[in-house]
Amino acid sequence: MYASGGTSIYTGLNSAVEMLSNDDASGYDMVIVFTDGYDSSYTTYEANYKSIVDKAVENDICIYAIGIGQVDTGILTNVAETTGGNYYHASVVSELEEKINEVKEEAKELTDDSNGDGITDYHTKMICNGSLRYSTGAAVIGFAGNYEKVQENADYDGDGLVNGDEITIGSTSGGRPCVVMMSNPIEKDTDKDGYNDKEERKNGTNVFYPDINKHDVDALFNDYYLASVFADDYEDSYGTKFILQAGNLITNFKYSYVNDYRKALILYIQQYTGATYQDKLTSAIKETYDSSLFSMLEEGTNYILSFSDVLNQTKYSADYFAARQSVVDCCNKIASLRQTVASIENYSQLVGYDDELVQTFVNIQTQIVEQKELLTSANTEFANILNEMKLNGKFAEATGKLVNKLPSPAVKFVNKVGEGKVNTFLTYGLIALDTGVSVLDSVSIYGGLDAGFVQCAELDEFLESIIENSDIKEMREAASDVKEMLENDSKAMYYGALSVVKDVIKGAGTTGVTWTLTHLGPIGWATYLGWGLGNLASGTGKIDEKALGIIACGNGAKCYSESIKKHLSSDTDSFYMCPEELKGQLQLLGQLKIVGEDKFCETAKSRGPFRKFFEWIISGESQASINAYGRENIDSIFSLCDNMDIFVEKKFEGNYLYK
């Protein structure tokens, strides 16, 4: 080669980037800049190089720079590393071949996919160092600072999809390269609906929105259960109504059907809240922990990327490398904790797990503080970055902001009974460890209130469905009475909850409060909060009352099914979309059907004018056969709910078949 004239690095670089930007050929675009001097004195990075570097980034052009002898190292390094390349220095021309070979080796990453995950090593490295992000500017959580670990795992989250099936490289509306998420690469089940991401692809469902199997839901809606058949017969058959009336005359009791329907509904509310409260509480606590952990994982990722920036500024100090790796390890621990939380099934496990969780965060916070002291003493700019972060010692704050994020049905209900003052209640959610309240106690108290309000919201909607859909006049009146009781008495619960939360913030009497709110459910802790769902209305105590209880369950299930159906939306031919409130509705419906079957079998054993009907309805079988049929139906309901990951209880308080 023959060279003459001055040094015009910018001019050559500009020509190369322009040429590649206008070239539609497929492949990876790469520029190598050679120079043995400085550009023109009037050429600066901000005035000249920045615009061409931005264009290179927009068009996914990687620039490598090789300087020989005395060159402007700062500009060349900035140009190269901003575009995903590197700067190499050769002291003399004889070293040029060695540097070119280094570029060749590194450039293999542009096309190499060494772990076969569908993402080139080049792009994987950019994702892990934070230079390639989602279009929102958010980094790929879990990948930051973890290049070696990511390269070891073609399927990072173990959901059956390789990384390149979950994220790919696209571009923003402005043409800048970005990561496009097709499913979360660090979550096996992106939308947490019980189907992992690979199953979602196979099913053709939306991986970002929970789904539920149509067959299971529709089967739960069916009215072939004993209580439903009996309720339908009561509505349609004059004979059944006559038997009830005749039985009433025989027993010589005068009573109100409305009264007994009201009693049946109130008793079911007690059975439902008692059977499902612990499940709702555990779910509320798990969701709170997971949200807090994910929030901290985001903050940790920001730390890692900040460390990377400092590493570039300080020429890869060993101290900074060690500090960054420590934060990476912390983030990996947080990710592991999230997996552990997801596997917990009941409140007692959470109680035992809390010590480990808190101790882990204490250790993480200690490390962060130590690193802060180490790094800020050497780098003022990094000190400012650290001061903006919230990871060091702020788990309680993060938790406090999230524990009161009530599910939408509960917010609607609290707004109604609290006269639109839901924000007043949520204001008391900002807690801190120095109140003397443990993390689990704090989360449990708020989780208990959240779970209670969710149950109240579901019951309010259930009663409303009877008022709107029941063909039995007395049932509609009874549901209206109970709904009024629920809403009026819930106001006392709401204001009582405010008092409890204030006491918690002060650190007063938390032990007894925590136990009450986490073990008894809204009916149980009604005593503490001053809430009682009216007095149970007394009925005849005879078989007539029990029969009306069956009708209340069967007709109530029919009405609630019709109400739920109106709000269902299909995702595919085989799946319904499953918003947060749907599983709660199906849980109430499943438990109601189980209670109805149990009541039917219990009533069938009582001698009286109804026995022939109970025998006829299942082809004249014996009481043992009636019980077996009822258990079979309950087991079927239980299996359907299990398929849908919905908790229902066979052995609820006062049941007959599963004592």
How would you describe this structure to a colleague?
- The chain is mostly helical.
- It folds into 5 domains: 9-110, von Willebrand factor, type A domain (Rossmann fold, 3-Layer(aba) Sandwich), CATH 3.40.50; 121-203, no CATH class; 211-255 and 540-643; 282-396; 403-529, no CATH class.
- 63% of the residues lie in helices and 5% in strands.
- It contains 27 helices and 7 strands.
- The chain has helices at 9-21, 45-58, 73-82, 96-107, 121-129, 147-152, 163-166, 197-203, 214-221, 226-236, 238-250, 257-313, 318-343, 347-376, 380-388, 395-403, 408-417, 422-426, 439-469, 473-506, 510-519, 521-524, 526-529, 543-565, 580-604, 611-617, 623-643; strands at residues 29-35, 61-68, 87-90, 167-171, 177-181, 211-213, 575-577.
- Strands 1-2-3 form a 3-stranded parallel β-sheet, sandwiched between helices. A two-stranded antiparallel sheet has the order 4-5.
- Strand 1, helix 2 (45-58) and strand 2 (61-68) form a beta-alpha-beta unit.
- Helix 19 (439-469) packs antiparallel against helix 20 (473-506).
- The N and C termini lie far apart (95 Å).
- The model is unreliable at 249-255, 385-396, 398-404 and 422-436 (pLDDT under 50).
Topology:
Blueprint: H1 9-21, E1 29-35, H2 45-58, E2 61-68, H3 73-82, E3 87-90, H4 96-107, H5 121-129, H6 147-152, H7 163-166, E4 167-171, E5 177-181, H8 197-203, E6 211-213, H9 214-221, H10 226-236, H11 238-250, H12 257-313, H13 318-343, H14 347-376, H15 380-388, H16 395-403, H17 408-417, H18 422-426, H19 439-469, H20 473-506, H21 510-519, H22 521-524, H23 526-529, H24 543-565, E7 575-577, H25 580-604, H26 611-617, H27 623-643
Parallel strand pairs: 1-2, 2-3
Antiparallel strand pairs: 4-5, 6-7
Helix pairs in contact: 1-2, 9-27, 10-11, 10-24, 12-13, 12-16, 12-19, 12-20, 12-24, 12-25, 13-14, 16-19, 17-19, 19-20, 19-21, 19-24, 19-25, 24-25, 25-27
